[in-house]
Amino acid sequence: MEVKVSLIIPVYGVENFLERAVDSALAQTLEEKEIVLVDDGSPDACPAICDRYARDYPGLVKVIHQGNQGLGMARNAGVAAARGEYLAFLDSDDTIEPTMLETLYKKAKSGGYDLVMCDVKICYVEENRETVSVSYPQEEIDLADYIAHGNNITYSVNKLFHRSLWEGERYEKMLFEDIALIPALVTKARSMGYVPQPFYNYYRRGGTISTSQVGAMVDIVDAFEKFLTTCDPGYKEEAVYAVARQLLWNMTQSRPLFLPDFIAFLHEFEADFRLNPYLRQDNEAGKLLDYLETPVLPDTLVCAHCRRELPPELLRAVKEHFPHARVVEPDESWLSREEVPENVRQAAEQGHWQYVEEYLSLLCLWEEGGIALSQEALPSLLLKRRRM
């Protein structure tokens, strides 16, 4: 059977929601489809549920089992195994409306589009309310205007992609893999269609990656950088403005804890932001440029230790909360530096290592900036505020 659409569903730790998601995929009115379930080493009942669907729907449901590698890698495995003319994605704790694939496919074929999108219904589970995120104000897409002003540009799940768009393209192994890849794919689409209907149901609940605050969430900075450096150069100004809008929202509303990381990113692309014509015309988004005047300490942690190892608890806390930080460890070898005064060397000879470590920490801060940690410290994510 010709496969018109391959629907890829990455699966991990969602045994309470998986059947609802797969059932919504099976209920699709498009007959020429395949469903690719990618079990990303899920530790619960998900692997068995996936296998059951494959047994019950041979030829329709395909299962891939792999060790845990993350959402992006699971999607990549699905893309590699897919046979469809077009590809679509469904997260395993969400659902899609029965006519989504058929409607988007017909739109793609009738208009010769290599990418078609729809709207997204956001279901706030704890609040028991719903809202629709409208992707664009009109059905005909002006690609440059959509990149600059549209919604849902970073979503993988509300789009139907012609498989040719994926040649040489894959998700990164990171959080916010959508931001790093999907907007750049959009800028490379030859043509784009839009069906203004909320076919995708996104269930937003607390305790997920998108709603939590963990150290690895600074990946969002790398994702923005990937977007700006891989987008089609013909849409660079629109891409910069799209990032500026998302960046300001993250800085002021969604993830203010990571403000120093966002400001450092802003400085990295300072010329692009300062010269962007869209930002000059948008007074609200233009407030982003004010942050260029805000000083920020480098993302460096200084952990001095002489004649002793750093406590495992300290190292674990640093790895968990500051996975992207640069860690500098001044030790007794620094005593050979000519800028170290004689009294510090004498203190070392007398075994006053705490004094020596404190001096070496100050020396490192003077040279490189950052935050010095005592060996008794158990740094939490809140320490990021100290960089402001």
Topology:
Blueprint: E1 5-11, H1 18-26, E2 33-40, H2 46-56, E3 61-66, H3 71-81, E4 86-89, E5 95-96, H4 100-111, E6 115-124, E7 129-133, H5 143-149, E8 159-162, H6 177-188, E9 192-204, H7 219-230, H8 236-254, H9 259-268, H10 270-274, H11 277-281, E10 300-302, H12 312-321, E11 326-328, H13 342-349, H14 353-368, E12 371-372
Parallel strand pairs: 1-2, 1-4, 2-3, 6-9, 10-11, 10-12
Antiparallel strand pairs: 4-8, 5-9, 6-7, 6-8
Helix pairs in contact: 5-8, 6-7, 13-14
Structural summary, described in words:
- The chain is of the alpha/beta class and 388 residues long.
- 38% of the residues lie in helices and 17% in strands.
- The chain has 14 helices and 12 strands.
- Strands 1, 2, 3, 4, 5, 6, 7, 8 and 9 form a 9-stranded mixed sheet that branches.
- Helix 5 (143-149) packs parallel to helix 8 and helix 6 runs parallel beside helix 7.
- The longest helix has 19 residues, at 236-254.
- The termini are far apart.
- The model has no long low-confidence stretch (mean pLDDT 94).
Shape: globular
- The whole-angstrom Rg is 25 Å
- Classify the secondary structure makeup into a structural class: alpha/beta
Task: Kindly state the number of beta strands.
Answer: 12
Overall pLDDT level:
94
Give the biggest beta sheet.
9 strands, mixed
H-E order: EHEHEHEEHEEHEHEHHHHHEHEHHE
Q: What proportion strand?
A: 15-25%
Head-to-tail CA distance between termini: 59 Å
Percent helix range: 25-40%
Identify low-pLDDT runs: none
Contiguous helical run count: 14
